[in-house]
Amino acid sequence: QVQLVESGGGVVQPGRSLRLSCAASGFIFSSYGMHWARQAPGKGLEWVAVISYDGSNKYYADSVKDRFTISRDISKNTLYLQMNSLRAEDTAVYYCARDLGDYGALSDWGQGTLVTVSS
Amino acid sequence: QSALTQPASVSGSPEQSITISCTGTSSDVGSYKFVSWYQQHPGKAPKLIIYDVINRPSGVSSRFSGSKSGNTASLTISGLQAEDEADYYCSSYTSIGLYVFGTGTKVTVL
Fold first, then answer.
1. Which of B20, B50, B18, B14 is nearest to B35 (CA)?
2. Residues in chain B within 8 Å Cβ distance of A60
3. Does B14 contact chain A (CB < 8 Å)?
4. Do A105 and B34 touch (CB under 8 A)?
5. Cβ–Cβ below 8 Å for B38 and A106
6. A57-99, pLDDT tens digit by residue?
7. Contact indicator for A81, A49 with CB cutoff of 8 Å
8. How far apart are alpha carbons B52 and B33 in whole angstroms?
9. What b/e string do you get for A73-91 counting C-beta neighbours within 10 Å, with b at 16 or more?
10. Of B45, B87, B101, the CB nearest to A46
């Protein structure tokens, strides 16, 4: 069965960096687009970024553009989110998710990893 | 990009039907069939329940159905059950290749 396991969350000071990982199994990782989404405590979902199945296309929400970078390592079946210049408003549970097709039907989600940006 | 607009809360009695609206613009909901709906129970990850406006993933109850008219998509839950009490989010692909979620709706079963 499809399994997505995020890691790398924690407490980080404003302005610092953090890299999240998402280990994928149970499907052909190189065949699917992958997303990151986040949810601030007590708030709604916010889409963060997407990467195409082959890594050639990447798109970002305005709120993270130029600060966050999505990438994937096919050899390790792992999705990444490099987060730089972190702000308090980036505090959230970060989820990785698999796209069912090509247009944002997120069919499988990880359990999430909490990132807290605080001094 | 602005979040799609959903009612903050909707409630209904068991066995009733409820509908949740999701209003966007001609740059997202109005232009694409790529509207999805998610159910999220407290402390859990979201679960896909509708994709491409009307389709249900395997294993999702037929009590959930989706539709769209113009810039507004809708999710209907028929035969409301206690286990349907959760938060629901819509999402859509947008004209600039991005994605956007709705503001979320809390469903309460009375």
1. B50
2. 98
3. no
4. yes
5. yes
6. 999 999 999 999 999 999 999 999 999 999 999 999 999 999 9
7. yes
8. 5
9. eeeebbbbbebeebeeebb
10. B101
